[in-house]
Amino acid sequence: MQNRETRIAWYFLLPLLVALAAVALWPLGRNIYFSFTNAFLDNPTDYSFVGLENFATVIEDPVFWGAVKNTMIFTLVSVTLETLLGLAVALLLHRAFAGRGLVRAAILVPWAMPMVVSAKIWEWMFNDQFGLINKALIWLGFLDKGIAWTADPSLILGTIIFIDVWVTTPFMVLLILAGLQLIPEEIYEAAEVSGVPAWKRLWSITLPLAAPAIGVAVLFRTLDALRMFDLSYVIAANSENAMTMSIYARDQLIGFQDLGVGSAASTWVFLIVGLVAILIVSVLRLDRNTT
Amino acid sequence: MTGPKRYSNQAYRRLRAVKRFGLYAGVAIVLAYMLFPYYWAIISSTKSRASLYSFSLLPSLDFSNYISLFNNPIFMGAIVNSAIVAFSSSLISLIISLLAAYALGRLHFPVSRIILICVLMISVFPQVVVLSGMFEVIGWLDFYNRPAALIFSYLLLILPFTTWVLTSFIRDLPTELEEAALIDGCSRIRILTHVLLPLMGPAIASTGLLAFILAWNEFLFALTFILTDENRTVPVAIGLLTGSSRYEYPFGQIMAASVTVTLPLLILVLIFQRKIVAGLTAGAVKG
Amino acid sequence: MASVTLKEVSKSFGAYDVLRSIDLTIDDGEFVVFVGPSGCGKSTLLRVIAGLVPVSSGDVFIGGEQVTDVPASKRGVAFVFQTYALYPHMNVARNISFALETARMARNEIRQRLTKVADMLKIRHLLDRKPKQLSGGQRQRVAIGRALVSQPQLFLFDEPLSNLDADLRMEMRFEIAKLHAEISTTMIYVTHDQTEAMTLADRIVILNHGRIEQIGSPRELYDRPVNRFVAGFLGSPRMNFAPVSFDVSSMSLLGPKGFAFEGRLVGDAQPATLGLRPEALRIVKAQIPRSIQGIFERVEDLGYEQIAYVRLTEDLVWTVRSADPLPDHAAGQPVGLAWQTKDLYLFDDAGMRVDVLAATEPFAIEQS
């Protein structure tokens, strides 16, 4: 009977396994395979093995390191800001007030839009001449004349981070709120009755108990930020000041048609993301053991 | 009265009123931050070319941007393409992952945990990593520059997500219900279709909607695997909408396009709000 | 109608053994109750018989036929679940007839059977309702109806009354007993409630840590428990225990506070524990002969009976149950406890009951 159940389970799983093999494992394997060849996209059947040459080409390219640096800064700053902002908003929306359900739904708006649309809306608001933000800042007296937020090389990464924070904070809020809702109300009531001040309730009760939910949210967001492509691609086009690892790899592959180097770049991205993932997961585990 | 100092009842009442006001002020700020950009997009989309630069916060109800957008065959074609791609890939993913979720969530099965972890790992790895291999597979299948290329490649995006979410939904259904169905003589597939599926209606609707949104919003694959304008999907079409120079950027039209492609989604999200939140957090909180 | 036989049935989940080599025969038409503390494996054993949980080893027979690998639906069993497990999206009628529908029975016959069952359980007026619109007791009836309609040869109940409040529980208990009397199909009933076990069962199976401790009629189990676990499990308040040792030279049993009595034991068993049910004890004046001494702590008056707590030593408090009002005692007052020899139970080191051939009533000795 046990065997029969296992067999049925495999039947049910078969479509998933086949599909994932076709769209994930096989392409991933081929990507790594191509990394060791000098294939070109226009004729991918004609190639020979070149060993680690492509990997060397990539790490000797300063543009790649620029992309890595941009991605790391982007990930670190935006995830930090999103976490803090997300936590603040989640704590606010966790309180009881009229219309709470509606507000929680409304904050999903930025998240549900295509990234391209968000990028375009903010590009319009950040427009140097006709943008609302420059206009408002000039009106308030902070600026004399409009700033080219999306064109100035020193500002562009900051602008992208600003937009990303707007887009992904709702996701953070949702995950943290779900974590907060798992904390039983009685714990707070007990703390309140025994006179524990609000800041201490936050620091000693809410944060430790919500930490697993926050940890998971940070992990997801970090891995998502590391592969960021669309926002930077739409806002910064091919500015090297905002080029991410994903854009770099795709440029090599599609832009320069260089299947070998492009695949090697992708493989580097894969290794870097994997490393960060392992790092975060082990840090989270460590926390769990000490508390 | 001994113990720490206590204020008068009236003082506490005032304090509470202040806190209350602070709470609502905070909520108002959050709402403004989250919603104003979209509001501004709507306003801008209804302004004529001349008044676009006037900064009025009220709509001017000029629909010329929408009219020219709806007369743009490439944009309308992109909407149709997006709808076909997103609908097909979500439907295929739902069917495949529902079957898998039943096996993973319910049947006693030794490697289910390992498979779930693999699924989760696939959902977080960067799409660019499979780009070259996917390019090759799409070439073999002769899908290049066709919507089928996207329907196929989007399975990578959607399947792990739907599998994970549906598994956790199925786990939440009471086991006894299924035991009752087994005693009543149902086969596994009949249990899935006649007992679990009817109960999962809202869960499947919201998971499907989230899957649809994922596919509808995707950019990288859509940009890479589609070559010609008439096969493009909406995000790429909007991304590539440009004027002849930077100063002739058709912002009014872009805003109209942005509003058009997001409004239906937003309405659906608001309707399914509760279930969507459950779906998004299902895997994360318990996993 | 069928008998059930289990041969060396074991079940483990990973490294955890839930059932350890269970041997059991249930006769045709019998009402058997599985009872035991939570985690003892009683629910798993029921699911093994139903075919919902595969055995790790051993064999299951129903009606003399080997069914170890037969799926649940082909075993001719019906199952009533603790949470009722009614399909929330189907109305009562469809809930009851779903199994028949699945088996592709003719519509006419389904209707006939449905009507018969609905009349029997007096739920005809509920047939169009959804489970959500029913009260707890009504849901319970529907769950039983769903079991009845397939005309099983074996009924399995998994704590069916535990989600009901006290009044309803009594009513449904009575209904289930009546049902068994009417259709006399074999029934197996799992519960942790000893009242249900005592009142419903022809025979009770007491389980602990995945093993059968004892099988027997309620009376048998109550009067002649094979071991200390069974003795302590049945009865409320539970049996009073005290450690004792047997002194060969004086042929007497020595208790913890220096109480002792002469005794003759069968064989060479060494009693380690003494047991007395609360209703076997009487409170008497302190220091009178043939009693042991304690301190009166408090009394709980339940109206129909009284329960008194008497402290014998630092960490040993005995309960005394009495249907008649107890004389007034102040807390802290010294009292004596007396009993009749026939009510005395003795258990050896391993907890097995030791037969008492003869024993005198207790007498106080000097503490050494």
From TrEMBL, chain A:
InterPro entries: MetI-like, MetI-like_sf
Annotated GO biological process: transmembrane transport
Principal localisation: membrane
Taxonomy of the source species: Bacteria, Pseudomonadati, Pseudomonadota, Alphaproteobacteria, Hyphomicrobiales
Keyword Ribonucleoprotein: no
Name the UniProt record assigns to this protein: ABC transporter permease
Xref: CDD domains: TM_PBP2
Localisation per UniProt entry: Cell membrane
Transmembrane segments: 9-28, 72-93, 105-122, 155-180, 201-220, 265-286
Automatic annotation (TrEMBL), chain B:
Transmembrane segments: 21-42, 74-102, 114-135, 147-170, 191-216, 251-272
Membrane topology: Multi-pass membrane protein
Single Gene Ontology BP annotation: transmembrane transport
Record carries keyword DNA damage: no
Subcellular location: Cell membrane
PROSITE patterns in the record: ABC_TM1
Signal sequence annotation: none
Keywords tagged on the record: Cell membrane, Membrane, Transmembrane, Transmembrane helix, Transport
Keyword Signal appears in the UniProt entry: no
GO cellular component, one term: plasma membrane
Primary residence: membrane
All residue ranges annotated as the ABC transmembrane type-1 domain in the record: 79-272
One Pfam family cited in the UniProt record for this chain: BPD_transp_1
Highest taxon listed in the record's lineage: Bacteria
Record-stated family: Belongs to the binding-protein-dependent transport system permease family.
PANTHER family: INNER MEMBRANE ABC TRANSPORTER PERMEASE PROTEIN YCJP, MALTOSE TRANSPORT SYSTEM PERMEASE-RELATED
Protein name, entry field: Sugar ABC transporter permease
Organism of origin: Phyllobacterium brassicacearum
From TrEMBL, chain C:
CDD domains linked: ABC_MalK_N (cd03301)
Keyword Nucleotide-binding: yes
Membrane topology: Peripheral membrane protein
Single GO MF annotation: ABC-type maltose transporter activity
Record key words, sorted: ATP-binding, Nucleotide-binding, Transport
Any Gene Ontology CC annotation: maltose transport complex
SMART domains hit by this protein: AAA (SM00382)
Domain ABC transporter: 4-234
InterPro entries in the cross-refs: AAA+_ATPase, ABC_transporter-like_ATP-bd, ABC_transporter-like_CS, ABC_transpr_MalK-like, ABC_transpr_MalK/UgpC-like, Mo/tungstate-bd_C_term_dom, NA-bd_OB-fold, P-loop_NTPase
Entry annotated with the keyword Repressor: no
Annotated compartments: Cell inner membrane
Family (UniProt): Belongs to the ABC transporter superfamily.
Protein name: ABC transporter ATP-binding protein
Organism name: Phyllobacterium brassicacearum
